[in-house]
Amino acid sequence: MPINPPLNHRQQQVLWATVRHYIATAEPVGSGALVKEFNLSVSSATIRNAMGHLEKVGLLFQPHTSAGRVPSDSGYRIYVDQLIQPSSAVSMQLEQMLSDRLNWDKWSFESVLKGAAQILSTLSGYIAIVTMPMTHTTQLRHLQLVPIDASRIMLIVVTDTYETQSVLMELPPSEDDPEVIDRELKILSNFLSEQLRGRSLTELQTLDWGELGREFDRYSSLLTSVLTDLLNRLAQSALPSQLMISGVAEVLRQPEFSELNQVQMILHLLEEEQDQLVPLIFDQPDSEGRRVSIRIGSENPLEPIRACSLISSTYNRGTVPVGSIGVLGPTRMLYEDTIALVEATADYLSDRLS
Question: Domain spanning 9-83 has what CATH number?
């Protein structure tokens, strides 16, 4: 059987209507229901024939011999690839909520991502998953040395994701006048911030501190040690496997998750095996021109989510992907809305980061 069997216009209409009805009701669909609900302008017999063909090519199936039909994973794939467009109205609604509710000026970047995940899960009705930026792409935004007293200074590092770390440094012994030391520290602080701004954490760890010049020699080994420690801390706090997850309770009330064993497998994956989930969320779209990756049912390689669909996209700094957004829900998903929501969230974060 071909993956995408050719369908005529009538068969496409019936497949679209069947999927929409099943998404709304979670009940197997018969031809009579489609006649009543959708203006297909054909008889019930014509619809039955079309449904029979769709079943024959594997796009619909009967869960029981006396029941109506439900979409297969292949049926959902045709529906997603050929029969729908993302909803622009839903995109606009999400963008407005993100702009109104997320406070970039006062919140940490982690808090912004958590807020975005909560909004995404609320509007979609499914599980929203957002990753922190990948460590190797995180860049330095600001570095400053702040005098505390005669013998101590504080080094403050801020990344472009607004992650902040600071540490106290004991100054090396010196017979210089305090004003001279204060002036040196200001020059050094400006020099470091200017030279290091925009460099990735990976680059910072391999810098040649000899470039600082002889006048700053007494600070170089201290700065190397302290900054390396800070960067390691930043790297640990920004691991790509750190996921913001929202909406679990709501989606598990769906009839597809009525079996306790299935719920437990999904929860275990989300809580204990996030490292397996992250590569899927970072997956690139299969088709050119598509901005999201869509895995439907059995297309998912992980057993716990083979009854689910995973829609994901990356958010970027410029053209470089740094993190990802995903929505996980049953295959009986309102794809046109969910695709639009994932795209809009990714675009919003990309715009703010850029």
Answer: 1.10.10.10
